[in-house]
Amino acid sequence: MKVAVLGAGAMGSVIGAHFHKGGADVTLIDPFTALVEKINKDGLKMTFNGKEEIVKMKAVLTPQEVGGTVDVVVVLVKGLFTRSAMENAKCLFGDKTVAISLQNGVGNVDIMKEFLPDEKIGNGTLNMSSRPLELGEVSGAAGKGVAVHFINETHSKTGIWVEIEEVLNKGGLLTEYSTDTEVMVWSKLLVNSCVNLTCGLARVNMGIFWDHPDGASLEELIARELVAVANAKGIKMDWDTAWNAYTKDLLPSVRDHYPSATQDIMKKKKTEVDFLNGAVVRGGKETGIPTPVNDVIVKLTHILEDNFDRQWDSIK
Q1: Mean pLDDT of the 42-65 span
Q2: Domain boundaries, the chain
Q3: Average pLDDT over the chain, rounded to an integer
Q4: Which of 6, 175, 258, 313 suits a disulfide with 262, CB 3.0-4.6 Å?
Q5: What's the CA gap between 300 and 277, in Å, rounded?
Q6: Mean of the pLDDT values across residues 204-210?
Q7: 313 pLDDT exceeds 80?
Q8: 197 close to 276: Cβ distance less than 8 angstroms
Q9: Which residues contact 114 (CB under 8 A, 6 or more apart)?
Q10: pLDDT, tens digit (0-9, with 9 covering 90-100), for 230-269
């Protein structure tokens, strides 16, 4: 199996490494020259679940450098780059090539449908963490239970979709093709919508935000809108299950974490808000469910992003 990973950030590198460990021929694609050179020279230094190893993979700057078509394209760029990444990666797609999004948020698959038919598109969610260390070094850990849930748009587990599951499991990442994937995607969206932009706007980590009574209250309002939208869309989310999975199972272990979009705000970079809280707002419009709290989060974030160069710490 030939695999190309669009986006060699921490998560893309970890996923690529596990495909490689499972026997796939993997190429990481990333525009960061220093990172590509480092991986090609020394391999990826990965510490995962406490085990440190060097994983030798090929890395390139552009899809054109892969040198032909592949069997699987794994999309792990940020949502705001999905369309341009798919456009630039057309050279990777042959008659049988499939693409699978393992990205945060909701809306990436809709963009992928501009380029591919349903039977060639997969969607999944990652129950795992990863973070960059030094250049070409990443650290990560799998969560409890299955690390990767995925499914294809036609819900037909045949051929390459079976092989994807087998290769990742062989590579040491517990992976399951599951019809519950959409619920898992929206359950993760709940967490990301509660913390990514709220912590960024407040400039605090997850624990500090939650400990403030207004923070905890705001997160619950965000989550309740999300669950209502999901159920209206036919995605059977149970409030108690989803909320407890976040507040009781996950939050205690990640209280000191600054979520990815919060880190983007720190660096004055565009965030994935339109694929997080923005996805809830779009779903609300589609189903007639009011989402005023998520809408405010989206609007505040857009104002912030459009004025990074005019904030008080940027004015001389």
Answers
A1: 96
A2: 2-178, 182-314
A3: 95
A4: 258
A5: 11
A6: 97
A7: no
A8: yes
A9: 83, 86
A10: 999 999 999 999 999 999 988 998 899 899 899 999 999 9
